Amino acid sequence: MFSLLLSWSAFSLYAQSDKVKAYVEQGIALHDKGDYKGAIEEYQKALALDAASPMVNYEIASSYFAAKDYDKALKHINVTLQKETEFADHAYILKGSVLDLQGKSKEAIAVYKNALRTHQDNYLLYYNLALTLFNSKASVTET
Fold this sequence. Notes:
The protein is mainly alpha-helical and 143 residues long.
C-alpha cells in the first residue's frame, strides 16, 4: 500500500511538472510574439501549480518587464533570486534593469556588483553596470 501511495505521489508530481513546463513553453511563445498579457496569463497558470518555481517567476518577471509593469517584475524576480539557479545571472540583470528604469540607479549598481561576485563570466553584468554608471554619472568608487 505504501509503495502504491509513493508511486502515485511521484506520478502526480511528474504530471504537475509537465503542466508547468507546458504553460511556460506557451508563455514563452506568446512573449516572443509580443503578447505579454497572454504570456503572463500562461505563467500565472504555472504559478498556481508551483508558486516558488524560480524558472516560472523569472519568465513572468520578463513579461512584466516587457509590459513595463516594473513593480510586478521586481516582485517575481525577487522570488527567482531566493535560490541560486542556472539563470540567476540573467535574473540579476533583469533586477538591475528594473531598478535602473525606476530611477534607482544606486540600487541597480549594487545589484550588478553583488552579482559579479559569483558570476564574473557574464559580460552582460559588466555591460549593464557600465551603462548604469554612465547614465547616472556615477563612478565605480562613488558607489
